Amino acid sequence: MNLYEHTIIARQDTSPSELKQLTEKYSKIIEKNEGEVVKTENWGLINLSYLIKKNKKGSYIHFKIKGSGKVIVELEKNESIDKKLLRYLTVRVKKFDLDTMYFGKKEDNEKKESVKN
After folding, report:
1. Phi, psi at residue 102, to the nearest 5°?
2. The domain spanning residue 30 has which CATH number?
């Protein structure tokens, strides 16, 4: 069983309900192909470094996935034809970092660190 971190960037005009539908859609695809979604994070609307399809911002959704390469092939095949998405990226990792919220509020991370110490 391989571990993957998968991030999708949706168009800036995508509504919160559409983002939830996208998350559910791709979670179902992962589960249909014998994969498991360990964690899903909604990073929110973030400025892009450069224009992508005339968009200055994008809504980021990040998945932590356990599964085989077949899951990723099927996932990326569906994402490549989805008009609501600007980009997607999959990275294979050795282990998940489930504690750190990279795009969460700084106060939340500091509270978690103080609890650990």
Report:
1. -70, -30
2. 3.30.70.60
What DSSP line would sit under 5-62, residue for residue? EEEEEEETT--HHHHHHHHHHHHHHHHHTT-EEEEEEEEEEEEEEEEETTEEEEEEEE
Total number of domains constituting the chain: 1
**Full domain range(s) for residue 20:** 2-116
Report d(CA 27, CA 24) in Å as an integer: 5
This prediction has a pTM of 0.81
- Give the pLDDT mean for 87-116: 70
Angle in degrees, CA 58, 51, 104, rounded to 5: 30
Integer Cα distance of 85 and 80 in angstroms: 8
The 10s digit of each residue's pLDDT in 3-51 is: 999 999 999 998 999 999 999 999 999 999 888 999 898 888 999 999 9
